[in-house]
UniProtKB/TrEMBL annotation, chain A:
<dbReference type="Pfam" id="PF14907">
    <property type="entry name" value="NTP_transf_5"/>
</dbReference>
<protein>
    <submittedName>
        <fullName>Nucleotidyltransferase family protein</fullName>
    </submittedName>
</protein>
<dbReference type="InterPro" id="IPR039498">
    <property type="entry name" value="NTP_transf_5"/>
</dbReference>
UniProtKB/TrEMBL annotation, chain B:
<keyword id="KW-0418">Kinase</keyword>
<dbReference type="InterPro" id="IPR027600">
    <property type="entry name" value="HprK-rel_A"/>
</dbReference>
<dbReference type="InterPro" id="IPR027417">
    <property type="entry name" value="P-loop_NTPase"/>
</dbReference>
<keyword id="KW-0808">Transferase</keyword>
<dbReference type="GO" id="GO:0016301">
    <property type="term" value="F:kinase activity"/>
</dbReference>
<protein>
    <submittedName>
        <fullName>HprK-related kinase A</fullName>
    </submittedName>
</protein>
Amino acid sequence: MFEKLIVRALKNPSEVKEFTPAQWQEFLSQGYQTGLLARFYFLFKTQTLLQFVPPPLSWHFNSAHALSLAHRRDIRIEVEHIERALKMVGIQPVLLKGVAYDLAQDKVAEGRVFSDVDIFISKTELASAEHALGLHGWNMGKMTAYDRSYYRRWMHELPPMIHRERGMTLDVHHSLLPVTCRYAFDPTELQFDVSNGHCVLSLIDRIIHAFCHLLMESEFEKGLRDLSDLDLLFRQLDTAAQWNQLLTRTEQLGVGRLCFYALRYVHLVLATPVPDFVLQGSQRWAPSAPVLGLMDWAFPKVLVNALSMTASWRIKLAHFLLYLRGHWLRMPLHLLAPHLARKAWMRISGSAEQETAI
Amino acid sequence: MTLSDYSLSQLNSRLSGDGVCFRSGRFVSRIRSPITEVAADLLRVYSGAEVCEDQFVDFDIELLPSGGYRRFYKPQVNFSFNGYLPFQPLPQEQSLPLMEWGLNWCVSNHFQQALVIHAAVVEKYGRALILPGQPGAGKSTLCAALVSVGGFRLLSDELTIIDCHSAQVLPNPRPISLKNKAIDIVAGLQSGLNLSRTVRDTQKGSVALLQAPPGSVASWNLTASPGLIVFPKFKAGSEGGTLQELSKGETFLQLANQSFNYPILAEQGFNAISRHLDQAQCYRFDYDGDLTAAVDALDGLMQDV
């Protein structure tokens, strides 16, 4: 099967040594599409491949790297601000996603784009956390009353909060998955680690959170970048005991199906070294053959190809299918249908424009 | 070879096929578009641009019509950068201004190898004259007058790029974007200026583009040393213009504020501005719209630096 240059380079970065100028040009374009230029700067640097980048194109990789470093520096400062604000009410937030990778010194933090900060707070502490953050300058953006109540009632996080001076976005989670989602689990089961004085999820739970997030998505704008994140996270498991722990935790939290897909597609698309016993062990979570056939048709397309105006009908159809799947998984139909109807009506009638400040 | 070596129909078939690669400022862009007006627009304001076949492309751009009913009813244009659409679609007659805004976006969002400031910049006597200014301060009008009648070289009308180590200004000569009243004022400066057609009712009002002079385009790689930083302000009744020296501290803060990537470059950005200011003089310039007098005043100041 025809394989995109960027996928080949993710699987084996030294392939770029053989790239022709035309292939470099195409690779650059795919790097922009997927947001992976900074990740490649890191891969090239660690594997002494930077000298193979054609000099006229090297600034693209250097600039992406500079941007990633700047984001990383900014979110570290932001974390200090958030922790200080919450300390006032005696809350220690658990840092999630990008910030957690950075603080735990995971390889996946290298060359990643950090756009916002994600924290987890137990539901009982939510009201006082929101109050303390509000006092320290974090406010929720404008949204319609309907969207606001939707977030409060059904989502696993508060509406995004934006700091009024620094402009950084903060997502406050009280669960890792939407409450209506069929894979939702009790957040009190999560396991934490302390890294350099900051609280993060344990490595296994960080991985579980990452794949739940990706496989519950309904829009895959940066699917390949997220898949590459998963690839690097899985590569951190280097003993059979750790892999076993992953399988056990997955079973405990009831997210087996999502784990099955994650292992399957990261292995299939990026050739991540997943031990055979793990792939076999995850088979018990496989869906029925027709569903698996459909997913095998759609997921590899969607994870590798972003939706664009010029995408083929197959790719557009695959995106549409997984869009429906994402919504279906997030909400049972008797909630989803009225919600989508309401959103469609708001778009048609233009009432979505009438934003109200909180 | 320059774009003007293509006939209109040749350019059109290139644009709707593999695209045309040319130097837009200091970067190489590849433009593709099935929209027929784009070729004529390009020949108007980029006729002197160097065609760069067989070279690496920095910015891969498509100007795409919206699909669905928009094919027939009030057709729209989208700016696509490697398949990503950073802007809302605009009416199709605004294709050229959209491409220009898009090309600015490409630089200000992706180029972190030097400090990028929102300011016009021109050169004379080997030194740079930087003109920062809020929208409406008249920096583009002044910039157009300086290059079309004042003998200044255009470095950029929108993005001043300062090397962090040498503090030199890196040229990015592209068409000058003129708005509303400035269009007629600049058209009246001199005969034979290459102006695009005027596009009305854009989000910035009426817009026309003035082709960059061939000499400026050809010396895209010739840097300029620090010279003057002048904050222009249109003020009726300030006869012939008044100059007032500004402190370097104040100028520093203004430049940092109007920079796209000062927070990203951090210490390097600080070095770029401070090294540049070490060798430059800073002024506030109120002018009454008499462009000839303004050009003379600024030229005189440049000679003394």
